Amino acid sequence: MSKFGKKKKGSPAISTASLPDIVFMLLFFFMVTTVMRETDLQINSPSLPSASEVKKLEQKSLVTTIYVGQAKDAKYGKKYNSIQLNDKIATADDIPAFIINARLNIKEENHPRMTTSIKADKQMSVGTLTDIRQRLRDVNALKLSLSTHKGGTISE
C-alpha cells in the first residue's frame, strides 16, 4: 500500500475574480443604452375604453401616438378633449405637421406601414376623434389604432 494516491486529471477551477467587473460593466451598459419614456404626459393618464377583440401592435418603431384626455394644467380647462402631440398640448390642426415630421424620421419604404395610435380617455367626445381622423386623412395617414384594455391589462 502506498501513502500517495493518484492525482486526478481534470480542468482547473474557473476563477471568479473578474466577475464583479463584468457585472458592473453590463450594468453600466444597460444604464447608458436604456431609453426611458420619450414623452411626458401633459394630460391625465387616459382611462382607456374596454374592447372584446384586442390585437397587439407589431412594430413599435413605426407607431406614432396621439394622446387625448383631460389636461393636467388648469390653463387648458377641465374638458376631456385636450390633444397631446409629443410633449405639448396641441389642436387638431397641428396633427398633419406632427405626422409629416414623424415621417421624416423613418425610411420612405416604411411610410405605408406607419401606424397612428390614439390613446384616448373613454370620456372624450366623438367630435374630437372625428377631427383627428379627418386631419389624419388629409396627410394620407390611414392606418389607425385605438388603444383599449382587455381584462385589466393594457393592450394596443
Automatic annotation (TrEMBL):
Q: Which keywords does this chain's UniProt record carry?
A: Cell membrane, Membrane, Protein transport, Transmembrane, Transmembrane helix, Transport
What's the superkingdom here?
Bacteria
Q: Which residues form the signal peptide?
A: none
**Where is the chain membrane-spanning?**
12-36
Membrane topology per the entry is: Single-pass membrane protein; Single-pass type II membrane protein
Pfam families hit by this protein: ExbD (PF02472)
Q: Where in the cell is it found?
A: Cell membrane
Name the family the entry cites.
Answer: Belongs to the ExbD/TolR family.
Q: What's the protein here called?
A: Biopolymer transport protein ExbD
Source species of the chain? Tenacibaculum platacis
Per the UniProt record, the lineage of the source organism begins with:
Bacteria, Pseudomonadati, Bacteroidota, Flavobacteriia, Flavobacteriales
